[in-house]
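Supplementary Methods, section 5.1.

A reviewer requested that the exact input to the structure prediction be made available. We therefore reproduce it here, unchanged from the version used in the analyses.
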Amino acid sequence: MKNCEPYNLREWYVSSGRLFTCGRPGRGTYNPLTKPVPEYVIDLWVRGLPSVPQLSIISLLGYKPPSVKHPSGLSEFAYYPFRSFKEGGSKPTFQDWLISRSGPRFSVEEFPTLDRLPIVPDEFVETIRKRVRALLESSAVVIVVDSAGVQRTGEVCGTIGILRSN
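The structure derived from this sequence is encoded token-by-token as follows.
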């Protein structure tokens, strides 16, 4: 199997720190997502992330819009061996799972959004941007993650940096 993880990994030009965007674990392997993502695929995603001592992950994963099959929406964490910190259950959180598999180099902050544009309300988008800017000003390496690594990540990062052409 060809390794396509992380999907749409891109770096943005910024004045301090480093800024990346990408799609969720498994997006490059399973698109559309219709079954649980195996741990080895998530491990491929982790190995494809920037190799730095500390990586700040800003997760925009939240919910898919309501549908006939899922009237209240579907958690974008439903297919993983981990959950959002905002969800109950016995699975570890995204951050706890990453640390248990890869060590303490990850810091995950979640800003759950609905998988659509625009992200609303505008104040919420600005809250996310402020957090990303604060991390970058402290010279952090930041990766912003959504379903495909394009729309929601672009809405957040488009006013912070300039996308590098790959």
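The chain has a mean pLDDT of 91. These observations are discussed further in the main text.
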